[in-house]
Write a structure and sequence with these properties.
Structural class: mainly alpha
Largest sheet: 4 strands, mixed
Strand order of the largest sheet: 2-1-3-4
Helix content: 55-70%
Number of helices: 15
Oligomer: single chain
């Protein structure tokens, strides 16, 4: 019993000393303070502001009207009345439209062929040709969708007018043209806004980026100054690494327990990003996410010999984290190798669970898969952090002993 009390007392003292040592290192380092607070808010604010318009409207296109009939002018008026397209120029020559396109004055070109109106009057099929800038998927989709919608309505008007000319009432003419009525409803992201889609995932990704960068800077400084063993003297004792790691995880988790509600309460509210979950559930889900990222940061910080290297590494690390997160491309379309690689990153499960909770109004039971996976990553990276800390402390102590012998 006495031995157990000694072990508990030493662990308690080590935990407390580590907590305050790490806190003093954070508050005395301006780079870390700016990373944890300024970057966490500034990056999220800037990205949210950039995408705050949510939906792209009035994409400029050029219309080459080779027909100049009333039917072609009616079609152009209908197209111009759509929310997404603005026909800023009407040309009779395709070369002029191409010049406007290559100079980026327009994002698409639509060609109405000669005899457009005559073919419609004679019930002949006519063809509308559309060119859209596929280098920008948002403009590309907007032009093609709005042209397709306008063409569909224009076709409907032609068919309905012909039926009415035969004496069919307008209600029956509409029903004959479209016997099946479809109702499309956007779930969760009702405005189909880009910010509402992107910002919640970006919030979880920024948490990982900021944590890894801050931990890397602190541990890089310690490696430069060779103060790992002197700051945490019980690292080389049996079981001495555990209270050190738990203290570090507790401190960083407390910091983000302050940062996270400010992000959600200030930035999400300011830009009208919906939050469909309680803060308690967000905190509960964030716990294994934070700890897994913290232990990952401690484990990989042994790679850094100088504090600047952590920033370079994180810049390189953030790109695959973004690509494998499913933010820019569906994860289901990745190969099996990259799907498994993505599962090793806390941000993958963290982003999925965070979006489900805050945007999809999921209950906590519905994010248990991601939550449990994050706990598994926590244990994995905790084990790696134990090994790397032991190795660093041992090498540092060995170098100190060699220096003392030489002196």
């Amino acid at each position: 019993m006495k031995n157990l009390y000694k072990i508990y007392h030493r662990a308690k003292v080590s935990f407390r000393n580590t907590f305050f040592t790490e806190w003093n290192a954070i508050k005395s380092d301006k780079a870390v303070i700016s990373t944890f607070f300024s970057v966490a808010f500034v990056i999220l604010f800037v990205y949210t502001y950039i995408y705050s318009k949510e939906v792209v409207t009035e994409v400029p296109i050029a219309v080459v009207n080779q027909d100049q009939s009333k039917a072609s002018r009616d079609y152009i008026s209908m197209l111009d009345a759509s929310d997404g397209i603005k026909t800023i120029s009407t040309f009779t020559d395709l070369q002029q439209a191409k010049t406007a396109y290559y100079s980026k004055k327009v994002m698409g070109v639509l060609i109405l062929p000669k005899n457009f109106g005559k073919d419609i009057r004679r019930s002949r099929q006519t063809t509308i040709t559309t060119f859209s800038d596929a280098s920008n998927m948002i403009f590309y989709k907007k032009v093609l969708v709005d042209v397709s919608v306008a063409t569909g309505f224009y076709n409907a008007g032609i068919v309905i007018k012909k039926d009415m000319a035969k004496g069919t009432p307008i209600s029956f003419a509409k029903q004959n043209y479209s016997p099946i009525q479809s109702i499309s409803t956007s779930l969760f992201n009702t405005s189909s806004g880009y910010a509402t889609y992107m910002v919640p995932m970006l919030t979880a990704l920024i948490i990982q980026l900021v944590l890894l960068m801050g931990i890397g800077i602190i541990n890089g400084s310690r490696k430069e100054d060779k103060t790992v063993h002197s700051n945490f003297p019980r690292l080389l004792h049996k079981g001495g690494t555990i209270p050190v790691l738990l203290a570090k995880a507790s401190l960083y988790s407390l910091l983000f327990a302050v940062i996270l509600p400010i992000q959600l309460g200030l930035i999400f509210t300011l830009f009208s990003i919906p939050i469909r979950s309680s803060l308690l559930h967000v905190y509960l889900f964030a716990l294994p996410y934070l700890t897994s990222v913290i232990f990952l940061g401690i484990a990989i910080s042994s790679l850094f010999h100088r504090r600047e290297e952590s920033i370079v590494f994180l810049v390189l690390f953030s790109i695959p984290s973004l690509m494998l997160s499913g933010l820019s491309f569906p994860m289901e379309s990745f190969s099996v190798f990259y799907q498994n690689l993505a599962k090793l990153l806390p941000s993958t499960s963290g982003m999925n669970g965070f979006v489900k909770l805050t945007q999809m109004e999921a209950s906590f039971n519905e994010v248990l898969t991601e939550w449990n996976h994050l706990w598994i990553l926590t244990l994995l990276y905790f084990s790696l952090a134990v090994i790397t800390l032991k190795i660093r402390a041992h090498r540092e102590r060995l170098k100190t002993v060699i220096v003392e012998k030489n002196n």
